[in-house]
Amino acid sequence: MTTSTYSPSQNSDNKRRRQQRRLFQEADWARSDGRTFQQCRPAFLRTGAASAASGSAYAEFGATKVIVSVFGPRESKKAMLYSNTGRLNCNVLYTTFSTSIRGQGTDNKEYSSMLHKALEGAIILETFPKTTVDVFALVLESGGGDLPVIITCASLALADAGIMMYDLVSAVSVSCFGKNLVIDPTLEEEACQDGSLMVTCMPARNEVTQLTLTGEWTTPKINEAMELCLDACSKLAEIMRSCLKEAASVPS
User: In the chain, how many H helices and how many E strands?
Assistant: First the structure.
């Protein structure tokens, strides 16, 4: 028997996406994983995921799986040239098997920059002058809401490394589908969204470190989405603190 290769037509894929978009625009539809519109995915968090790092963490939110390693503070000649405060470097990578399209693993410069912006305001850089802290995030599996998971996991890894911070940083995103707001979207939902809003914050200080908005939004919808994200961030931070307390109580 001869083995033949085949590929689905682009038209079929586009048709499927249009059908999904029409479904998501309806007033009432069921999410594929059974969650309500305002229900986040179960969060599994663990520190000490990489023994060679100064600190590390692993996060699993549904199908999204991320591991973050922190190295430092360590001497940095570059930092010594211009500043008496510490320097934060962030790098986000996707593995070649993280998405359904093989060979897509690559650096994500946009996510690296956004991770840096989300974390920089929370770290007390003055506590490690003329040195550098390197944060390496690796997405093992992309299942939607990748950046919020990366930021949350990175904050936990920094705490595990003993880096002084004003507060933990948690992040949550919301997708807009017509009149519906859907929190913590999956990859399928993100592909059909009309817009998205992501909030990263320090819940204990009630401070937002980053706000990202895409698509067209009305002011009432932005306010509603912000409230959803901030409430979810606060609850996620409680899970993060519990993870750190549990790790600290385990005998070394």
Answer: 6, 9
Q: Which residue has the tokens 């996620």?
A: 236
CA distance 85 to 141: 35
Which region holds residue 114: left if phi is over 0, alpha if psi is between -120 and 50, else beta? alpha
CA angle 177, 29, 185 (to 5 degrees): 50
Read off the pTM. Answer: 0.86
The three-state secondary structure class of 141 is: strand
Q: Which CATH number fits domain 34-246: 3.30.230.70, 3.40.50.620, 1.10.260.40, 3.40.50.1100?
A: 3.30.230.70
Alpha helices (H) along 66-216:
77-82, 109-120, 146-160, 187-190
Phi/psi zone of residue 223: left (φ > 0), alpha (ψ -120 to 50 degrees), beta?
alpha
Q: Tell me whether residue 234 is exposed, middle or buried, using C-beta atoms within 10 angstroms of its C-beta: 0 to 12, 13 to 18, 19 or more.
A: middle
Domain boundaries, the chain: 34-246
> Tell me: the pLDDT tens digits for 23-72?
555 556 788 889 999 999 999 999 998 889 999 999 999 999 999 999 98
Cβ neighbours for 181, distance < 8 A, ≥ 6 positions apart:
37, 38, 174, 175, 221, 224, 225, 228
Kindly report the number of other CB atoms within 10 A of residue 109's CB atom. Answer: 10
Amino acid identity of 196? S
Give the CA radius of gyration of the chain. 20
Amino acid at 167: D
Low-confidence spans in the chain with pLDDT less than 70: 1-28, 76-83, 98-107, 252
